[in-house]
């Protein structure tokens, strides 16, 4: 069944397939070994702007305005304070565009949603501003290891800046990448990697024959094909809106309500899998995304991957789901907010995420509920880790609970408006909200060695199940520059195809 935004979906897919072919051409004929960085920057920028113009018409000028003004702020204000001004301007300009599009032109309609690429550009502008501030103003001893590794030591040229923000590989659907990783790719230094040992630490610097991304690209395209097929054949028959259907709410038994909530939100995810995996494949096809070799010598092409499907579907906690969903946006939130917040970093980070996503009230309901879910998990989990038999039972139960809790949390994100969102929650008697509040009030928070609650420390802990990745607020930096070879809606484009 076609939806009103079907032409926009086709437009998006056609442009991304063009970008895939352009990426293959870019790696084959404009390889860094035979082409200057200036040419590679220029072509990547021109192709990106062409795709933006084709998709969004003159709305694409917003991308140049946002990037151009931000660059002027960096040059004029200076490295001491420009990160704050860039952050306020980029996020404010994005918000004004979202308000204009949503409340003036087409509330609930997703055609010509130019704010999608602006969300990615906002991430890049703010990330780079903080990285330049760290590298050119702050002292090394003041930085965390990840900040030190990502710090930028010189001001980029205007062409480098536009190329980073508007290159054809990521302008439509991202994902976010660090500036140093992007420059390393453009200059052809992505393959000078350190081989990692079992503990994840680098053992020796080595330069090997450039690996081919073809196998990784084909595998990701197969995932894209299956995701798109599922979306076109199954998702339309399981609409999320049916959860608030009056007849369904009145007649369905509770097991049926729970089951339909889960399967309807499960069916809504493949379009994200399609869009993010295709974006990853495009970058890989251009030669970008190489993360080094594992200890078995196999090349890894997940430097800027945005999700891990198996871990998402098998998540046993709210945190584990967020660890593997929209990974690059989670990294951005961690780097520009969580690590730098002076108080309540978890709450500030969820609030920033809501603002970045847009102005629909449903987004804020989702992220407020997400804060409760995240905090509740910190109070509850440590009671079930010992003995091992209890933990096994706990994991089995929490898989089911997590899937329902995630679905319950993101329903307003899909419904967008206040009235249907509250209609859904009232039909569930606000059950999970009440459960979260009771757990927070009645169960103590586990204390860390420093006496701080896990509310503030869990998002920075390491997850052994995520292959060396970090937390619910950001994965480990896969920075090529750092030679580490071992993330709702987010960085995905606000284009119609990516709407839940």
From TrEMBL:
Region described as Disordered: spans on this chain: 453-500
GO MF: 1-acylglycerophosphocholine O-acyltransferase activity; 1-acylglycerophosphoethanolamine O-acyltransferase activity; 1-acylglycerophosphoserine O-acyltransferase activity
Assigned keywords, A-Z: Acyltransferase, Endoplasmic reticulum, Membrane, Transferase, Transmembrane, Transmembrane helix
Primary location: endoplasmic reticulum
UniProt GO cellular component terms: endoplasmic reticulum membrane
Topology of the protein relative to the lipid bilayer: Multi-pass membrane protein
Biased composition (Polar residues): 469-500
Designated name of the protein: Membrane bound O-acyltransferase domain containing 2
Organism: Oryctolagus cuniculus
Gene name linked to the record: MBOAT2
